[in-house]
Amino acid sequence: MENILIIFVILILAKVLGEFFERIGFSSILGEIFAGIILSLFLLSQDPETFSFLAELGAIFLLFTAGYKEVHLQELRSASKKAIIPTITQILLAFSSGFILGLIFNFQILESLFMAVAFSATSIGVLVKILIDYNYLSSKPGSLMLTSAIFDDIAGIFMLSIVVTVAELQHLPSFSQILTIFAKLAFFMLSMAVLGLKIYPKLFDYIHKMHIKESIFSFVIIIALFSAYFAEAFELHAVIGAFVGGIILSRIPIAKIEDVQSKVSGLSYGMFTPLFFAYIGFTVDLSVLETTSLFTVLVVVMALFGKLVGGFIGSKIVGLDSSDSLIFGIGVMPRAGIELVVITVGRNRGIIGDEIYSAIVLMVIVSIIVSPMLLKFAINAKEKSSFTSSSNP
Amino acid sequence: MSDSGTFPSTKVYEIMVKSLVTVNENDTINDILELFKNYNFHTYPVINDKHELVGEVNQDIILEILLLDRIKSSKNIHRIAIKSMSENIKGIMEHHPLTLSPDTNLHHAADLMVKHKVNHVYIVEDSKLIGILSKRDIINHVYRIRGLS
Fold first, then answer.
1. Is A391 within a domain?
2. A253 at interface of B, judged by CB pairs closer than 8 A
3. Does the beta-carbon distance from B96 to A251 stay under 8 Å?
4. Which of A28, A177, A184, B97 has CB atoms 3.0–4.6 Å from A18's, for a disulfide?
5. What is the value of ipTM here, to two decimals?
6. pLDDT digits (tens, 9 = 90+) for B19-59
7. Strands B43-47 and B53-58
8. From the CA of B108, how many Å to the nearest CA of chain A?
Protein backbone atom coordinates (compact mmCIF):
# COMPACT_ATOMS: atom_id res chain seq x y z
CA MET A 1 0.00 0.00 0.00
CA GLU A 2 1.40 3.35 -0.92
CA ASN A 3 2.53 5.52 1.97
CA ILE A 4 0.24 8.38 1.01
CA LEU A 5 -2.71 6.02 0.79
CA ILE A 6 -1.90 4.60 4.24
CA ILE A 7 -1.85 8.04 5.86
CA PHE A 8 -5.01 9.02 4.01
CA VAL A 9 -6.88 5.89 5.13
CA ILE A 10 -5.70 6.16 8.76
CA LEU A 11 -6.60 9.82 9.08
CA ILE A 12 -10.03 9.48 7.56
CA LEU A 13 -10.86 6.38 9.65
CA ALA A 14 -9.45 7.98 12.81
CA LYS A 15 -11.41 11.19 12.37
CA VAL A 16 -14.71 9.56 11.34
CA LEU A 17 -14.59 6.96 14.12
CA GLY A 18 -13.31 9.59 16.58
CA GLU A 19 -16.35 11.72 15.82
CA PHE A 20 -18.62 8.70 16.27
CA PHE A 21 -17.23 7.89 19.73
CA GLU A 22 -17.23 11.55 20.76
CA ARG A 23 -20.92 11.80 19.84
CA ILE A 24 -21.91 8.76 21.89
CA GLY A 25 -20.09 10.18 24.91
CA PHE A 26 -16.67 8.54 24.79
CA SER A 27 -13.21 9.87 24.02
CA SER A 28 -12.30 10.28 20.35
CA ILE A 29 -9.08 8.39 21.14
CA LEU A 30 -11.17 5.19 21.02
CA GLY A 31 -11.99 5.92 17.38
CA GLU A 32 -8.34 6.52 16.58
CA ILE A 33 -7.28 3.23 18.22
CA PHE A 34 -10.04 1.34 16.39
CA ALA A 35 -8.92 2.92 13.11
CA GLY A 36 -5.55 1.22 13.65
CA ILE A 37 -7.20 -2.10 14.52
CA ILE A 38 -9.34 -1.97 11.34
CA LEU A 39 -6.24 -1.18 9.30
CA SER A 40 -4.40 -4.20 10.69
CA LEU A 41 -7.40 -6.50 10.20
CA PHE A 42 -8.45 -5.61 6.68
CA LEU A 43 -5.94 -3.48 4.88
CA LEU A 44 -2.39 -3.83 5.98
CA SER A 45 -0.63 -6.88 7.32
CA GLN A 46 2.87 -5.53 7.79
CA ASP A 47 4.15 -2.63 9.82
CA PRO A 48 5.45 -0.11 7.26
CA GLU A 49 8.39 1.96 8.45
CA THR A 50 6.64 5.18 7.52
CA PHE A 51 3.75 4.44 9.88
CA SER A 52 5.96 3.71 12.88
CA PHE A 53 8.06 6.81 12.20
CA LEU A 54 4.97 9.02 11.96
CA ALA A 55 3.62 7.45 15.14
CA GLU A 56 6.90 8.27 16.89
CA LEU A 57 6.46 11.87 15.81
CA GLY A 58 2.88 11.59 17.06
CA ALA A 59 4.05 10.64 20.56
CA ILE A 60 6.54 13.52 20.51
CA PHE A 61 3.87 16.01 19.43
CA LEU A 62 1.32 14.62 21.88
CA LEU A 63 3.59 15.43 24.81
CA PHE A 64 5.00 18.61 23.31
CA THR A 65 1.50 20.01 22.87
CA ALA A 66 0.58 18.89 26.40
CA GLY A 67 3.48 20.95 27.75
CA TYR A 68 3.04 23.86 25.35
CA LYS A 69 -0.71 24.33 25.61
CA GLU A 70 -2.02 22.57 28.63
CA VAL A 71 0.37 22.41 31.55
CA HIS A 72 0.48 25.68 33.38
CA LEU A 73 2.87 25.84 36.26
CA GLN A 74 0.89 28.68 37.81
CA GLU A 75 -2.24 26.54 37.79
CA LEU A 76 -0.26 23.70 39.33
CA ARG A 77 0.95 25.98 42.09
CA SER A 78 -2.52 27.23 42.83
CA ALA A 79 -4.09 23.77 42.62
CA SER A 80 -5.56 22.72 45.88
CA LYS A 81 -3.01 21.21 48.25
CA LYS A 82 -5.81 18.97 49.40
CA ALA A 83 -5.45 17.05 46.14
CA ILE A 84 -1.91 15.95 46.93
CA ILE A 85 -2.78 13.11 49.32
CA PRO A 86 -5.47 11.48 47.15
CA THR A 87 -3.19 11.86 44.13
CA ILE A 88 -0.32 10.12 45.89
CA THR A 89 -2.51 7.27 47.17
CA GLN A 90 -4.17 6.62 43.82
CA ILE A 91 -0.86 6.65 41.95
CA LEU A 92 0.84 4.54 44.61
CA LEU A 93 -1.86 1.88 44.66
CA ALA A 94 -2.14 1.72 40.88
CA PHE A 95 1.65 1.54 40.57
CA SER A 96 1.90 -1.22 43.16
CA SER A 97 -0.93 -3.18 41.50
CA GLY A 98 0.92 -3.12 38.18
CA PHE A 99 4.26 -3.99 39.69
CA ILE A 100 2.98 -6.85 41.86
CA LEU A 101 0.89 -8.25 39.01
CA GLY A 102 4.00 -8.30 36.82
CA LEU A 103 5.99 -10.15 39.46
CA ILE A 104 3.19 -12.66 40.11
CA PHE A 105 3.13 -13.53 36.40
CA ASN A 106 6.90 -13.94 36.40
CA PHE A 107 7.73 -10.96 34.26
CA GLN A 108 11.12 -9.41 34.83
CA ILE A 109 11.44 -6.46 37.17
CA LEU A 110 11.91 -4.00 34.30
CA GLU A 111 8.81 -5.27 32.51
CA SER A 112 6.87 -5.03 35.76
CA LEU A 113 8.12 -1.47 36.25
CA PHE A 114 6.88 -0.42 32.81
CA MET A 115 3.54 -1.99 33.57
CA ALA A 116 3.42 -0.22 36.92
CA VAL A 117 4.04 3.18 35.32
CA ALA A 118 1.43 2.46 32.65
CA PHE A 119 -1.04 1.66 35.45
CA SER A 120 -0.35 5.00 37.19
CA ALA A 121 -1.56 7.59 34.65
CA THR A 122 -4.99 9.23 34.57
CA SER A 123 -6.79 11.24 31.90
CA ILE A 124 -10.12 12.57 33.07
CA GLY A 125 -11.11 14.60 29.99
CA VAL A 126 -14.00 12.32 29.13
CA LEU A 127 -15.46 12.57 32.65
CA VAL A 128 -15.47 16.36 32.93
CA LYS A 129 -18.53 16.50 30.68
CA ILE A 130 -20.39 14.21 33.07
CA LEU A 131 -19.39 16.33 36.06
CA ILE A 132 -20.76 19.37 34.25
CA ASP A 133 -24.00 17.62 33.22
CA TYR A 134 -24.61 16.50 36.81
CA ASN A 135 -23.58 19.89 38.21
CA TYR A 136 -20.78 18.17 40.09
CA LEU A 137 -17.86 20.26 38.91
CA SER A 138 -17.54 22.32 42.04
CA SER A 139 -18.48 19.44 44.33
CA LYS A 140 -15.75 18.15 46.65
CA PRO A 141 -14.91 15.03 44.58
CA GLY A 142 -15.31 16.98 41.32
CA SER A 143 -12.83 19.71 42.16
CA LEU A 144 -10.49 17.14 43.68
CA MET A 145 -10.58 15.12 40.43
CA LEU A 146 -9.73 18.16 38.33
CA THR A 147 -6.74 19.16 40.42
CA SER A 148 -5.54 15.60 41.00
CA ALA A 149 -5.41 15.03 37.24
CA ILE A 150 -2.99 17.97 36.85
CA PHE A 151 -0.57 16.47 39.38
CA ASP A 152 -1.05 13.07 37.80
CA ASP A 153 0.22 14.24 34.39
CA ILE A 154 3.42 15.59 35.88
CA ALA A 155 3.93 12.47 38.00
CA GLY A 156 3.38 10.29 34.91
CA ILE A 157 6.05 12.10 32.92
CA PHE A 158 8.47 11.99 35.83
CA MET A 159 7.98 8.25 36.30
CA LEU A 160 8.32 7.68 32.56
CA SER A 161 11.64 9.51 32.52
CA ILE A 162 12.96 7.41 35.41
CA VAL A 163 11.77 4.10 34.04
CA VAL A 164 13.09 4.80 30.53
CA THR A 165 16.50 5.71 31.90
CA VAL A 166 16.53 2.57 34.01
CA ALA A 167 15.56 0.61 30.90
CA GLU A 168 18.63 1.93 29.11
CA LEU A 169 20.74 0.05 31.64
CA GLN A 170 18.88 -3.20 30.88
CA HIS A 171 19.10 -4.14 34.56
CA LEU A 172 18.14 -2.70 37.92
CA PRO A 173 20.46 0.20 38.77
CA SER A 174 22.90 0.23 41.62
CA PHE A 175 22.89 3.10 44.08
CA SER A 176 25.56 5.01 42.15
CA GLN A 177 23.64 4.46 38.90
CA ILE A 178 20.50 5.86 40.53
CA LEU A 179 22.49 8.93 41.48
CA THR A 180 23.77 9.20 37.90
CA ILE A 181 20.19 8.97 36.58
CA PHE A 182 19.05 11.79 38.85
CA ALA A 183 22.14 13.86 38.00
CA LYS A 184 21.43 13.46 34.27
CA LEU A 185 17.81 14.38 34.79
CA ALA A 186 18.77 17.42 36.87
CA PHE A 187 21.40 18.51 34.34
CA PHE A 188 18.93 18.13 31.48
CA MET A 189 16.33 20.20 33.34
CA LEU A 190 18.90 22.83 34.20
CA SER A 191 20.08 23.08 30.58
CA MET A 192 16.49 23.37 29.40
CA ALA A 193 15.79 26.05 32.02
CA VAL A 194 18.81 28.09 30.87
CA LEU A 195 17.71 27.75 27.26
CA GLY A 196 14.15 28.70 28.17
CA LEU A 197 14.95 31.64 30.39
CA LYS A 198 18.05 33.10 28.73
CA ILE A 199 18.53 31.89 25.16
CA TYR A 200 15.08 31.31 23.63
CA PRO A 201 13.57 34.70 24.54
CA LYS A 202 16.49 36.45 22.80
CA LEU A 203 16.31 34.03 19.89
CA PHE A 204 12.60 34.73 19.38
CA ASP A 205 13.31 38.47 19.37
CA TYR A 206 15.15 37.83 16.10
CA ILE A 207 12.87 35.09 14.83
CA HIS A 208 9.75 37.25 14.71
CA LYS A 209 11.62 39.82 12.64
CA MET A 210 12.75 37.25 10.05
CA HIS A 211 11.43 37.68 6.52
CA ILE A 212 10.75 34.03 5.81
CA LYS A 213 7.21 32.69 6.03
CA GLU A 214 5.95 31.22 9.31
CA SER A 215 9.20 31.93 11.14
CA ILE A 216 7.75 31.64 14.66
CA PHE A 217 5.78 28.47 13.94
CA SER A 218 8.80 26.85 12.28
CA PHE A 219 11.06 27.63 15.21
CA VAL A 220 8.52 26.35 17.71
CA ILE A 221 8.55 23.04 15.82
CA ILE A 222 12.35 23.17 15.52
CA ILE A 223 12.61 23.63 19.30
CA ALA A 224 10.15 20.77 19.88
CA LEU A 225 12.31 18.45 17.80
CA PHE A 226 15.55 19.79 19.27
CA SER A 227 14.24 19.26 22.81
CA ALA A 228 13.30 15.69 21.91
CA TYR A 229 16.74 15.03 20.42
CA PHE A 230 18.52 16.81 23.27
CA ALA A 231 16.78 14.56 25.81
CA GLU A 232 18.01 11.50 23.91
CA ALA A 233 21.53 12.84 24.27
CA PHE A 234 21.01 12.61 28.03
CA GLU A 235 19.70 9.08 27.57
CA LEU A 236 16.21 10.27 28.43
CA HIS A 237 13.43 9.56 25.98
CA ALA A 238 12.55 12.01 23.22
CA VAL A 239 8.98 12.42 24.48
CA ILE A 240 10.22 13.71 27.84
CA GLY A 241 12.35 16.31 26.08
CA ALA A 242 9.38 17.34 23.96
CA PHE A 243 7.19 17.75 27.04
CA VAL A 244 9.76 19.90 28.88
CA GLY A 245 10.43 21.89 25.68
CA GLY A 246 6.71 22.59 25.44
CA ILE A 247 6.49 23.88 29.01
CA ILE A 248 9.49 26.13 28.45
CA LEU A 249 8.09 27.61 25.23
CA SER A 250 4.71 28.18 26.86
CA ARG A 251 6.35 30.90 28.98
CA ILE A 252 7.64 32.88 26.00
CA PRO A 253 4.82 35.21 24.87
CA ILE A 254 5.89 35.55 21.23
CA ALA A 255 6.16 31.75 20.89
CA LYS A 256 2.62 31.39 22.20
CA ILE A 257 0.64 33.88 20.16
CA GLU A 258 -2.81 32.65 19.15
CA ASP A 259 -1.88 32.15 15.49
CA VAL A 260 1.08 29.88 16.33
CA GLN A 261 -0.85 28.00 19.01
CA SER A 262 -3.58 27.09 16.60
CA LYS A 263 -1.05 25.91 13.99
CA VAL A 264 0.79 23.74 16.53
CA SER A 265 -2.53 22.38 17.72
CA GLY A 266 -3.60 21.66 14.14
CA LEU A 267 -0.39 19.84 13.30
CA SER A 268 -0.58 17.83 16.50
CA TYR A 269 -4.27 16.94 16.87
CA GLY A 270 -5.10 17.16 13.19
CA MET A 271 -2.27 14.97 11.95
CA PHE A 272 0.34 13.36 14.18
CA THR A 273 -1.52 12.45 17.38
CA PRO A 274 -4.28 10.48 15.58
CA LEU A 275 -1.51 8.60 13.75
CA PHE A 276 0.06 7.72 17.10
CA PHE A 277 -3.18 6.37 18.58
CA ALA A 278 -3.97 4.53 15.34
CA TYR A 279 -0.52 2.94 15.47
CA ILE A 280 -1.32 1.71 18.99
CA GLY A 281 -4.42 -0.01 17.60
CA PHE A 282 -2.50 -1.29 14.59
CA THR A 283 0.22 -2.93 16.69
CA VAL A 284 -2.10 -4.61 19.20
CA ASP A 285 -1.81 -8.36 19.02
CA LEU A 286 -5.45 -9.30 18.63
CA SER A 287 -4.77 -12.97 19.32
CA VAL A 288 -3.77 -11.97 22.87
CA LEU A 289 -7.11 -10.27 23.30
CA GLU A 290 -9.07 -13.08 21.64
CA THR A 291 -7.81 -15.69 24.09
CA THR A 292 -8.56 -13.32 27.02
CA SER A 293 -6.09 -14.97 29.31
CA LEU A 294 -6.27 -14.60 33.07
CA PHE A 295 -3.38 -12.13 32.81
CA THR A 296 -5.23 -9.83 30.42
CA VAL A 297 -8.34 -9.88 32.61
CA LEU A 298 -6.27 -9.13 35.71
CA VAL A 299 -4.45 -6.23 33.99
CA VAL A 300 -7.78 -4.60 33.24
CA VAL A 301 -9.28 -5.31 36.66
CA MET A 302 -6.20 -4.43 38.75
CA ALA A 303 -5.45 -1.23 36.83
CA LEU A 304 -8.98 0.02 37.36
CA PHE A 305 -9.25 -1.19 40.96
CA GLY A 306 -5.83 0.20 41.87
CA LYS A 307 -7.05 3.67 40.95
CA LEU A 308 -10.47 3.16 42.47
CA VAL A 309 -9.21 1.90 45.84
CA GLY A 310 -6.23 4.30 45.97
CA GLY A 311 -8.47 7.25 45.16
CA PHE A 312 -11.08 6.10 47.68
CA ILE A 313 -8.55 5.76 50.51
CA GLY A 314 -6.86 9.09 49.73
CA SER A 315 -10.08 11.07 49.64
CA LYS A 316 -11.27 9.42 52.86
CA ILE A 317 -8.02 10.61 54.48
CA VAL A 318 -8.72 14.21 53.45
CA GLY A 319 -12.22 14.01 54.91
CA LEU A 320 -14.60 13.09 52.07
CA ASP A 321 -17.49 10.78 52.92
CA SER A 322 -17.71 7.29 51.41
CA SER A 323 -19.92 8.14 48.44
CA ASP A 324 -17.81 11.19 47.50
CA SER A 325 -14.65 9.09 47.89
CA LEU A 326 -16.13 6.47 45.58
CA ILE A 327 -16.93 9.16 43.01
CA PHE A 328 -13.34 10.41 43.21
CA GLY A 329 -11.94 6.86 42.92
CA ILE A 330 -13.98 6.25 39.76
CA GLY A 331 -13.02 9.70 38.48
CA VAL A 332 -9.31 8.87 38.36
CA MET A 333 -9.84 5.53 36.58
CA PRO A 334 -9.81 6.53 32.89
CA ARG A 335 -6.60 6.51 30.88
CA ALA A 336 -5.99 8.02 27.49
CA GLY A 337 -2.51 9.37 27.02
CA ILE A 338 0.79 8.94 28.76
CA GLU A 339 0.40 5.22 29.54
CA LEU A 340 0.16 4.53 25.80
CA VAL A 341 3.39 6.44 25.28
CA VAL A 342 4.95 4.41 28.12
CA ILE A 343 4.07 1.05 26.60
CA THR A 344 5.11 2.16 23.11
CA VAL A 345 8.51 3.15 24.46
CA GLY A 346 8.74 -0.16 26.33
CA ARG A 347 7.77 -2.16 23.27
CA ASN A 348 10.09 -0.30 20.90
CA ARG A 349 13.00 -0.89 23.25
CA GLY A 350 12.17 -4.59 23.48
CA ILE A 351 11.44 -4.43 27.20
CA ILE A 352 7.79 -5.41 27.19
CA GLY A 353 6.31 -8.04 24.91
CA ASP A 354 3.04 -8.24 23.00
CA GLU A 355 1.20 -9.74 25.95
CA ILE A 356 1.68 -6.78 28.30
CA TYR A 357 1.37 -4.26 25.45
CA SER A 358 -1.93 -5.59 24.17
CA ALA A 359 -3.37 -6.13 27.65
CA ILE A 360 -2.66 -2.50 28.56
CA VAL A 361 -4.22 -1.21 25.33
CA LEU A 362 -7.31 -3.25 26.21
CA MET A 363 -7.22 -1.77 29.72
CA VAL A 364 -7.17 1.75 28.26
CA ILE A 365 -10.12 0.95 25.97
CA VAL A 366 -12.12 -0.60 28.83
CA SER A 367 -11.28 2.32 31.16
CA ILE A 368 -12.55 4.85 28.60
CA ILE A 369 -15.80 2.89 28.17
CA VAL A 370 -16.62 1.91 31.75
CA SER A 371 -15.52 5.00 33.73
CA PRO A 372 -18.26 7.31 32.42
CA MET A 373 -20.88 4.64 33.10
CA LEU A 374 -19.61 3.96 36.61
CA LEU A 375 -19.36 7.68 37.38
CA LYS A 376 -22.97 8.27 36.35
CA PHE A 377 -24.02 5.28 38.45
CA ALA A 378 -22.10 6.51 41.54
CA ILE A 379 -23.46 10.05 41.28
CA ASN A 380 -27.03 8.77 40.81
CA ALA A 381 -26.62 6.44 43.80
CA LYS A 382 -25.39 9.32 45.96
CA GLU A 383 -28.21 11.59 44.86
CA LYS A 384 -30.72 8.85 45.58
CA SER A 385 -29.35 8.16 49.05
CA SER A 386 -29.18 11.85 49.98
CA PHE A 387 -32.76 12.27 48.73
CA THR A 388 -33.89 9.29 50.82
CA SER A 389 -32.10 10.54 53.93
CA SER A 390 -33.51 14.06 53.54
CA SER A 391 -37.06 12.79 53.10
CA ASN A 392 -36.77 10.46 56.15
CA PRO A 393 -35.95 12.69 59.09
CA MET B 1 4.23 53.67 0.89
CA SER B 2 7.18 52.02 2.65
CA ASP B 3 7.54 51.50 6.41
CA SER B 4 10.21 54.10 6.75
CA GLY B 5 8.07 56.60 4.89
CA THR B 6 5.05 55.99 7.07
CA PHE B 7 6.81 55.72 10.42
CA PRO B 8 10.05 57.72 10.04
CA SER B 9 11.21 57.28 13.61
CA THR B 10 7.98 56.96 15.49
CA LYS B 11 8.16 55.05 18.76
CA VAL B 12 5.24 53.06 20.09
CA TYR B 13 4.83 55.27 23.17
CA GLU B 14 3.92 58.14 20.85
CA ILE B 15 0.74 56.55 19.59
CA MET B 16 -0.14 53.92 22.19
CA VAL B 17 -3.35 54.29 24.19
CA LYS B 18 -2.44 55.41 27.69
CA SER B 19 -5.82 55.59 29.38
CA LEU B 20 -6.44 51.93 30.03
CA VAL B 21 -9.29 49.85 31.31
CA THR B 22 -7.62 47.16 33.39
CA VAL B 23 -8.66 44.26 35.58
CA ASN B 24 -7.02 43.45 38.89
CA GLU B 25 -5.95 39.84 39.32
CA ASN B 26 -8.05 39.66 42.50
CA ASP B 27 -11.24 40.85 40.80
CA THR B 28 -14.09 38.38 40.44
CA ILE B 29 -15.69 37.07 37.27
CA ASN B 30 -18.69 39.32 38.01
CA ASP B 31 -16.38 42.35 37.94
CA ILE B 32 -15.22 41.45 34.46
CA LEU B 33 -18.76 40.76 33.26
CA GLU B 34 -19.58 44.28 34.40
CA LEU B 35 -16.66 45.56 32.32
CA PHE B 36 -17.86 43.69 29.24
CA LYS B 37 -21.23 45.34 29.73
CA ASN B 38 -19.77 48.83 30.00
CA TYR B 39 -16.96 48.73 27.43
CA ASN B 40 -16.62 47.42 23.95
CA PHE B 41 -13.18 45.77 24.20
CA HIS B 42 -12.43 42.14 23.36
CA THR B 43 -9.44 41.83 25.70
CA TYR B 44 -8.47 43.37 29.03
CA PRO B 45 -5.02 43.48 30.61
CA VAL B 46 -4.76 41.99 34.08
CA ILE B 47 -2.56 43.77 36.60
CA ASN B 48 -1.53 43.10 40.17
CA ASP B 49 -1.61 45.55 43.08
CA LYS B 50 1.77 46.98 41.99
CA HIS B 51 0.30 47.80 38.57
CA GLU B 52 2.49 45.13 36.94
CA LEU B 53 1.06 43.32 33.92
CA VAL B 54 0.44 39.69 34.92
CA GLY B 55 -1.89 38.41 32.21
CA GLU B 56 -4.86 39.11 30.01
CA VAL B 57 -8.45 38.02 29.90
CA ASN B 58 -10.65 38.07 26.82
CA GLN B 59 -14.17 37.37 25.64
CA ASP B 60 -13.20 33.89 24.39
CA ILE B 61 -12.12 32.73 27.86
CA ILE B 62 -15.19 34.21 29.53
CA LEU B 63 -17.50 32.72 26.92
CA GLU B 64 -15.89 29.29 27.28
CA ILE B 65 -16.43 29.45 31.03
CA LEU B 66 -20.01 30.69 30.77
CA LEU B 67 -20.91 28.08 28.14
CA LEU B 68 -18.95 25.26 29.73
CA ASP B 69 -21.91 22.88 29.59
CA ARG B 70 -22.14 23.31 25.83
CA ILE B 71 -18.50 22.64 25.08
CA LYS B 72 -17.74 19.32 23.45
CA SER B 73 -15.38 17.12 25.39
CA SER B 74 -12.84 17.09 22.56
CA LYS B 75 -12.02 20.70 23.40
CA ASN B 76 -9.62 21.20 26.27
CA ILE B 77 -12.47 20.84 28.66
CA HIS B 78 -10.34 19.86 31.64
CA ARG B 79 -8.47 23.16 31.61
CA ILE B 80 -11.59 25.24 31.05
CA ALA B 81 -13.31 23.41 33.90
CA ILE B 82 -10.43 24.28 36.22
CA LYS B 83 -10.65 27.91 35.15
CA SER B 84 -14.39 27.92 35.77
CA MET B 85 -13.82 26.98 39.40
CA SER B 86 -11.58 29.95 40.05
CA GLU B 87 -12.93 32.66 42.30
CA ASN B 88 -10.79 35.43 40.84
CA ILE B 89 -9.32 36.56 37.54
CA LYS B 90 -5.90 35.22 38.53
CA GLY B 91 -7.13 31.68 37.96
CA ILE B 92 -8.86 32.50 34.67
CA MET B 93 -6.44 34.79 32.83
CA GLU B 94 -3.97 33.77 30.18
CA HIS B 95 -0.42 34.21 31.42
CA HIS B 96 2.53 35.74 29.58
CA PRO B 97 0.82 38.29 27.28
CA LEU B 98 2.83 39.81 24.46
CA THR B 99 4.65 42.98 25.48
CA LEU B 100 6.91 45.60 23.90
CA SER B 101 9.00 48.34 25.45
CA PRO B 102 7.82 51.95 24.88
CA ASP B 103 10.82 52.88 22.73
CA THR B 104 10.22 50.10 20.18
CA ASN B 105 10.01 51.47 16.66
CA LEU B 106 6.46 51.58 15.42
CA HIS B 107 7.36 49.84 12.17
CA HIS B 108 8.68 46.86 14.20
CA ALA B 109 5.44 46.71 16.15
CA ALA B 110 3.41 47.00 12.92
CA ASP B 111 5.47 44.26 11.26
CA LEU B 112 4.94 41.98 14.23
CA MET B 113 1.20 42.57 14.27
CA VAL B 114 0.63 42.17 10.56
CA LYS B 115 3.00 39.27 9.96
CA HIS B 116 1.95 37.20 12.95
CA LYS B 117 -1.73 38.15 13.16
CA VAL B 118 -1.38 39.81 16.57
CA ASN B 119 -4.22 42.24 17.28
CA HIS B 120 -2.66 44.18 20.15
CA VAL B 121 0.48 44.37 22.28
CA TYR B 122 0.95 45.70 25.78
CA ILE B 123 3.54 48.39 26.35
CA VAL B 124 5.45 47.75 29.54
CA GLU B 125 8.16 49.66 31.37
CA ASP B 126 9.86 48.04 34.37
CA SER B 127 7.10 45.40 34.39
CA LYS B 128 4.49 48.18 34.83
CA LEU B 129 1.75 48.45 32.24
CA ILE B 130 1.83 51.89 30.62
CA GLY B 131 -0.13 51.45 27.41
CA ILE B 132 -1.70 49.30 24.71
CA LEU B 133 -1.05 49.39 21.01
CA SER B 134 -3.64 47.89 18.70
CA LYS B 135 -3.92 47.57 14.93
CA ARG B 136 -6.58 50.26 15.04
CA ASP B 137 -4.12 52.71 16.63
CA ILE B 138 -1.65 52.10 13.82
CA ILE B 139 -4.31 52.49 11.14
CA ASN B 140 -5.47 55.77 12.72
CA HIS B 141 -1.88 56.97 12.92
CA VAL B 142 -1.22 56.22 9.24
CA TYR B 143 -4.50 57.87 8.29
CA ARG B 144 -3.55 60.96 10.29
CA ILE B 145 -0.12 61.20 8.66
CA ARG B 146 -1.57 60.80 5.16
CA GLY B 147 -4.20 63.41 5.94
CA LEU B 148 -1.52 65.86 7.02
CA SER B 149 0.69 65.25 4.00
1. no
2. yes
3. yes
4. A28
5. 0.82
6. 999 999 999 988 999 998 899 888 999 999 999 999 999 99
7. antiparallel
8. 8
